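hi! just following up on the protien thing from before. the input was this:
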Amino acid sequence: MKRALLILSAAFALSISAAADCIPFEQASKHMGSNECVTGKVLKVGHSARGTTFLDFCEDAKSCPFVVVIFARDLRDVGDVDKLEGKTIEISGKVEEYNGRAEIILKDVKQLHGEAGNIPPLPKNYDVEKRGGFSATSNLPRPKTAQQPKKPSQQQGGSADEE
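and the predicted 3d structure came back as:
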């Protein structure tokens, strides 16, 4: 019994120290260029017209000192990030500067820790190529492109040199 309590206490201490190692998102800009664990509450999950997803930690995303960016090509490896809205997350990665603010690019769900690391995968009908739209026709073949008209030398009969 004592051993079980000791193991549980050690596991609890490790989980607390892991959270303590994360810096608040407001301090991320002080750690540009280094790999860090950053924590904060996701207030909004935004999507651009090009399919890039943003985890915003401030009411005014444009003036926020930190953002998490997920490119459309990485969504399948990350999961359904829309489920992170309203949750406090811990994310690890290289803190980089882009347009005057700190960001971490999320490429894999393994970068998320704690409860955030258990987000569900994308829905099966989620079409990353359609910039995050859902598609009931994603398994249908694409239409063939129109054939270009042949150049005169490629038409039947050949050229005068062949006769």
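The domain at 21-132 is CATH 2.40.50.140 (OB fold (Dihydrolipoamide Acetyltransferase, E2P)).
The CA atoms of residues 148 and 163 lie 26 Å apart.
cheers
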